[in-house]
Amino acid sequence: MIISTEPEGLIIDNFIAIDVFGTNPDVKYFFLSSAHSRQCRKLTSEWQRNRICCSPITAKLLSVISSRRKEYKISDKWIRPLDLNVWHKMERFRVMLVDANHAPGSVMLIIESEHHNTLRRILYTGFFELMQDFIRM
Questions:
Q1: pTM for the full model?
Q2: Paired residues of 100 in beta bridges
Q3: How many helical (H) and strand (E) elements, i.e. helices and strands, does the chain have?
Q4: Which residues span the domain enclosing 110?
Q5: Which long-range contacts (CB under 8 A, 24 or more apart) does 130-136 make?
Q6: What's one GO MF term for it (predicted)?
Q7: Which of 28, 45, 66, 68 has the highest CB neighbour number within 10 Å of its CB?
């Protein structure tokens, strides 16, 4: 597994990008951990790559933000909301979105893939706030 850290987020195997919306032509899956302006700044009306997976709340927030701020205008057709706390099967990996307890809709991502009979797992936290209730879980 090749992990490339970027100032904004993470790229995994040049196939999965989290909070990174550059021009890497090999990236097939894009994830947005939050509707915060830091994560959204490269999402514009010119976005015509693959769909961006995010939480249902973030998807709704993006729609509102797009209607009010032209610099973040992105068509709803490029947004794919994923339910939290369930595994979602993708090509070559699966992902679970977990509440990050930060801004509304913000999530952490757990990504699992199997490579040569070895399970590989990544936890992407983005911004999160650790609370005692979470520690007890």
A1: 0.85
A2: none
A3: 3, 10
A4: 3-136
A5: 130/101, 131/101, 134/101
A6: damaged DNA binding
A7: 66
pLDDT in tens, 62-98: 888 777 766 667 778 889 999 999 999 999 999 999 9
> Any idea what the CATH number is for the domain that residue 74 is in?
3.60.15.10
Burial bucket for residue 63 (CB in 10 Å: 0-12, 13-18, 19+): middle
Please, where are the H alpha helices in the chain? 37-40, 56-68, 132-136
The number of folded domains in the chain is: 1
User: In this structure, what DSSP letter does residue 62 have?
Assistant: H
Strands (E), the chain: 3-5, 10-12, 16-18, 29-31, 52-54, 79-81, 87-90, 93-99, 107-115, 118-124
Provide the pLDDT for residue 123.
93
**With bands split at pLDDT 50, 70 and 90, how would you rate the model's confidence at 108?**
very high
Q: How far apart are CA 2 and CA 122, in angstroms?
A: 11
